[in-house]
Amino acid sequence: MFFSPHSSSVKQSLWQDWRADVACVFARDPAARGVSEVLLAYPGVHAVLLHRVSHRLWLADWKLTARLTAAFGRWLTNVDIHPGATIGKRFFIDHGACVVIGETAEIGNDVTLYHGVTLGGTTWNKAKRHPTLGNNVLIGAGAKVLGAITLGDNVRVGANSVVVKDVPACCTVIGIPGRIIQQKGTKIQNSHGIDLDHHLVPDPMGRAINCLIERLDKLEANQEKFVVMESENCDGCEADAVCHSEGTVMLKQAAGGR
Question: β-pairing, 189-190 with 172-174?
Answer without folding.
Answer: unpaired
